[in-house]
């Protein structure tokens, strides 16, 4: 009897967690599926803007520094700048993320600006809170903050942990079904909408159990910064006037590559405040991307002196495990099959939300004209 009461209590908790988070499961799952191919979709949607015609055999020597100077002149109060595609080819625009601060909690201050590196012409520009310059950039910000700033980032973290609890309680409630589903002993009974929703909920839930638990937990973990008091305190203070770099960004990028010859850069941080340093991050050649871009080189932007070289081998076990959270969350550690799989996994929260709602509606009698005593109950 105790076990039955325990299971029923967990089932109620599982149902309410699903009902409360259902719409957010759908929104976060769908947006996450789209963002698996974030770069490719952005390039496709803006292909006329982001493809440039080379005007010479090489990008101008100080192209990166010219972009930096243009940005800092246009935005005199910045928290920093990130070059998002240092792997850009000769026909690609240079994309930069701008970190600014308007002293408002309900906006997470990001902007996007892209340049033709041969002419320094601005190809697109605007805040990530608007569909332009990129719907994909808007969707990216919506996915991690619902376009609600730091409170929104905290909210997505909370929903991440409630979704994880929903998955775990579901695993316990339906624990006797797990092996039957994995061994294909349960198929979808197409007798009516009730049997379809019931079997689909169990089958999709079991097959996506581990991956959804990973995605929900890593999403929660990556947004933990939104619970730090210093994050909220900083957000209500306007960014200070820029103190720009005095050493060429292009020169420091070359120095970083010389300091770590097997570095494959994926991100370059261009500081606008003295407490931050010029930094190049990326993968080591041949490194499995599951371990994240833990290799980095930091350089003093005012003297050009090397500050720190860090590689994957230097990191602790805890740091290495944490570095896997972002690749595990977005599916960037594998090739096309892995990314397609992540797109499908991103659709499962929506399926579970809809079928779970239908099951709840059936049990409350709102959709049922007759008795429901013959319906399958959780184990």
Describe this protein with a few key phrases:
single chain; 379 residues; alpha+beta; eight-stranded antiparallel beta sheet; elongated
**How would you characterize the largest beta sheet?**
8 strands, antiparallel
Number of strands: 8
Enumerate the strands of the largest sheet in spatial order, edge to edge or round the barrel. Answer: 4-3-2-1-5-6-7-8
Residue ranges: pLDDT <50 for 5 or more in a row?
Answer: 367-379
What gap, in angstroms, lies between the N and C termini? 13 Å
- Outline, from the CA principal axes? elongated
Structural class: alpha+beta
- Our count of helices gives 14
| Average pLDDT | 89
Helix content: 40-55%
Strand % is: 5-15%
Secondary structure elements and pairings:
Blueprint: H1 2-35, H2 38-45, H3 47-50, H4 63-74, E1 80-83, E2 94-99, E3 110-116, E4 121-127, H5 135-145, H6 149-173, H7 175-182, H8 193-207, H9 209-222, H10 229-235, H11 249-259, E5 263-270, E6 278-284, E7 295-299, E8 306-310, H12 317-323, H13 325-330, H14 336-363
Antiparallel strand pairs: 1-2, 1-5, 2-3, 3-4, 5-6, 6-7, 7-8
Helix pairs in contact: 1-5, 1-6, 1-14, 6-9, 7-8, 8-14
